[in-house]
Amino acid sequence: MSTNNPNPLLPLAGKKGLITGVANDKSIAYAVAKAVRALGGEIALTYQNDKTAMYTRPLAESLGARLFEKLDVAQPGSLEGVIEKCGNEFGEIDFAVHSMAFCNGEDLHGRVIDTTEAGFDAAMNISCHSFLRMAKALEPLMAHGGSLITMSYLGAERVVRNYGVMGIIKAALESAVRYMAYDLGPKGIRVFAVSPGPIMTRAASGIANFNQLLEADAAKAPLGHTVTIEEVGALTAFLCTDGSSGMTGQTIYVDAGAHIVA
Ligand code: NAD
Fold it and tell me: Three-class SS string for 44-103?
C-alpha cells in the first residue's frame, strides 16, 4: 500500500485497479468505476461477452479505462488471462472489485433443496469461487497491499423471498471474505464485502417481484429510501483508498439502514 499520496483531494491518484461486472450504465460496477475515476484511480474494465461489449465499450471509453477486456469467469483461464494483461499494463495493482453473480432462474425461485448439483456448482463458481481465484491471481501484483472488494446481499444472512440458493452462495462469499482477510492480512491486502440494498439492475430484474422488494425496503429503511448505484460506488471507492487502511474482513451494508430493522 502506497501511503505518500501528494494529493489528498484525489486519494486514488497513482493507484491502479481492476473493476469487473459492468453490463450497462445501471450496473453497480459502472458506478464504482465512475467513483474510482473521480478520486483519480486508473482502471481496467471487463465485459462478459460480445453482446455486453456493445453497451460497455462506450462506457469504458468515457471513463478513460486503460484496459477493456473480455472476462467470462466460467471459462477456464479467462480470469487469469485478464489479470496477466493488468500486470503487463499496470505493473502493480492496488485494488480490485468483483461485482459478478449468476444463478439459474429456477434456483432463485424454487426451494433450495431442489437446486441441482449443476445449478449449485455454476452459481458457486461464478459468484463466489471466482473471487478466491481473483485474489490468488492478483496476489503477486499486490506486493504493496491494497483492497479486494466483492458485492454481497442481505439474503446471505436472512431468508429473502425469491433469492433462493443465491442466499447460500452469498453467505459463502461473506465467509470467504473473512478467511481471505485472515490469509492476506499479513501482506497488507484488505478484503471486503459491500452489501447494497436492492437496486433495479439487469441482474436484479431476474428476481421475481423485485419491485415489491424495493418498496418494502424503502418503507423499512431508517433513511426512508432505497440506495442508488452512486451510493454503492462512493462506499466502494472509499474502501479502495488508504482511508480504509484500518479495516478488513467486514461485510459493510449500504442499504439506507434497512438491515437493522426487523
Ligand atoms: P448487473 O447485471 O449489472 O451485473 C452483474 C454482472 O455479472 C454483469 O456484468 C455480468 O456480465 C456479470 N457476470 C455474470 N456471469 C459472469 C461470468 N460468467 N463471467 C463474468 N461476468 C459475469 O447487476 P448488479 O446488480 O450490478 O450486480 C453486481 C453485483 O451486485 C452482483 O454480485 C449482485 O449479486 C450484487 N448485488 C446486487 C444487488 C441489487 O439489488 N442489484 C444487491 C446486492 C448485491
Answer: EEEECCHHHHHHHHHHHHHHCCCEEEECCCCCCCHHHHHHHHHHHHHCCCCEEEECCCCC
**179 is an active site residue:** no
**Does residue 115's CB lie within 6 angstroms of at least one atom of ligand 1?**
no
Sorted by sequence, the CB contacts under 8 Å of residue 183 that are 6+ apart come out as none
Q: Which domains does the chain have, with CATH numbers?
A: 16-260 (3.40.50.720)
Q: What pLDDT score was predicted for residue 74?
A: 98
Q: How far is CA 160 from CA 39, 209, 217, 221, in A?
A: 35, 12, 11, 16
Any atom of ligand 1 within 6 Å of the Cβ of 227: no
Q: How far apart are CA 27 and CA 99, in angstroms?
A: 9
pLDDT at 171: 98
The pLDDT value recorded for residue 6 is 65
User: Cell match 461486472: residue?
Assistant: 21
Looking at the chain, the whole-number percentage of residues with pLDDT higher than 70 is 98
Q: Residues in the chain with pLDDT < 70?
A: 1-6
CA–CA distance, 143 with 134 (Å, rounded to integer): 15
Helix (H, G, I), strand (E, B) or coil at 184: helix
Q: What is the predicted pLDDT for the residue at 4?
A: 58
Is 55 designated active site?
no
The predicted pLDDT at position 241 comes to 98
Residue nearest to atom 17 of ligand 1 (CA): 72
CB-ligand 1 contact for 52 (6 Å cutoff) = yes
Predicted pLDDT of residue 1: 47
Q: Which of 30, 47, 163, 253 is catalytic?
A: 163
